Amino acid sequence: QVQLVESGGGLVQAGGSLRLSCAASGLPISSYGMGWFRQAPGKEREFVAAIKWSGAYTVHANSVKGRFTISRDNAKNTVYLQMNSLKPEDTAVYYCAADRSRRENVGQSSYEYDFWGQGTQVTVSI
Asked: What are the Cα distances from residue 40, in Å, to 24, 35, 115?
């Protein structure tokens, strides 16, 4: 069975930092492209960041580039999203996703991912 479990969300004031974790079981993240998406109330799911299955290539959405960093630890089978300089507009449920295609690029659409976690809430206060 495949399971992705996000953790690390919570309440933080603007300008603060959080690190989200995505612990994977039932699949080796070294063979899967991994992504982070977020969804705020009343908005569509939005791409945040992704890392290639081989680990050498990352993409970050323009809205978070320079503030957020995706990374992975294959030994722990865990993907991370370091979030710095948080803004109220970052408030959302953050989802971890896995892409089994082993594509040469990284997926930036929800449709390109096969497995999803349940999400973790991030709330950034003004």
From this structure: 24, 17, 20
